[in-house]
Structures are given as structure tokens and as C-alpha cells.
Description:
single chain; disordered C terminus; seven-stranded parallel β-sheet
Amino acid sequence: xxxxxxxxxxxxxxxxxxxxxxxxxxxxxxxxxxxxxxxxxxxxxxxxxxxxxxxxxxxxxxxxxxxxxxxxxxxxxxxxxxxxxxxxxxxxxxxxxxxxxxxxxxxxxxxxxxxxxxxxxxxxxxxxxxxxxxxxxxxxxxxxxxxxxxxxxxxxxxxxxxxxxxxxxxxxxxxxxxxxxxxxxxxxxxxxxxxxxxxxxxxxxxxxxxxxxxxxxxxxxxxxxxxxxxxxxxxxxxxxxxxxxxxxxxxxxxxxxxxxxxxxxxxxxxxxxxxxxx
Length: 278
């Protein structure tokens, strides 16, 4: 008989999850975490090579997985991934809206209207459209769970990320609205990461990691797996009485002032110091 903890139960066994923006970073970590929990996966992202790599990694770990490359800004693509998921597995139990853009980057007075609309198309409209697709294909009759990946930054202003933050604030409201409309069969929640070690945020954490980490109660910046574990819990039955909620996964960014020697502005000053154009 072996000693030590038993393997975690496959809390998502028999369920199918659709994850956007899954070619790298947080999206890839979420796909991997859901697969380890027993889910079958359909992953999508703009980069075909990245999608193929994610699918290969999932299958190498023993998961059932398919991938469909394309942009979430294209409504036809969202319906395609839903149809492909239904064709492969016959159900869509979980939707994770992770794909996002941080463009246009810079002061809002310099923002091009077309770029501004793109931010809302990708960060707000696409999540709504994908939930509509899943609702019509499966969830309206069978239920399910949705998680939208937002950002801790939606709770405050910051330099150069006005379009991103504003669109993510809209996504937070959309999350609550959908939770109210789709219950009790479908639960809709969000996670709001702080600074996480991803390629999208590399321009920040490569230069500011030490200073930001020192200002957090946890003493470190986030890893994609930190967010992935939170998502896995929210879509599982362990969170069956939670809907319309936003789970902060930020290393204590919003409570840093209460830590010994805490300075409520330290993290933001560190980020501003290292952001381009600041």
C-alpha cells in the first residue's frame, strides 16, 4: 500500500469545456487544469500553431481534446467551435472566455475609434456571443457553467490601459447580468487576475516583478496555474451555490495596505514607473 494523499477526484469527468485564448499563458493553463479534472476540451485561439501545440499537450496528458483556430471577433468562428464541440462530444458544459486584447494601448485621447471598438468586440461582445452559442446548442436544456476572465485592474484606473480596463469593467457587469438571466441552470462567474507571468504582460513583469512582488502580501506575482485552479473550482460542483461572483486572484493586490509596512500605492507606482510612456 502506498502512503500519501490520494489523487484528486476527476470533478469534471464526463463534461466538455470550451476555452478561448488557449494557445498560451492563462488560457493554456486553464485548459490543462480542466483536463486534469476530467473534462474533454475544445480549445481555440488565433494562432494555429499554438492551438495545435495545446491540443498535443492535452492529449499527451491523456485528455480528449480538439482545437479550432480562429478569432473570437468573428461570430462565424464562435459558432463553428460550438458546432465542432457538439459534433465531437455531444455537449458543451463549460465555457471559459479567456481571449482578450489590450489594444489600443495608450492615452484614451489618442485612441483610434476602430481600435476602441475592437477592444469591446473581443473583450465583451465575443464572450456574450459564445455564451449565446453554448446556450442554444446545449446549456438552455442541460445547464452548465461559464467563467469570464476579467482583470483586477477593472477596479481602478491606470496609465495606457483605459480601453482594456473599461472593456473588462463592462465584462464584469455582463457576467452579473448573465448570471441573473441564465440561472438556475447556468452559473456565470468571473475571475480577476492581478499581474500574472504571461507573454501578454511580459513588458510589465520582466521589469517590475521584484518591486511589485515586494508590495504584495503574498510576496510574489501570479502564475497562470494560480488562475487556472480558481477557474476549475468555479466550474465544478464544489461551487454550485456561486453565481454572479467575481473571484480576485491577485496575490492580495487590493489588501496590500493592511500588510506590515504596507503602502496602498506601492504596486501601482511600481507599475507606472515601468510602463512604456509613463
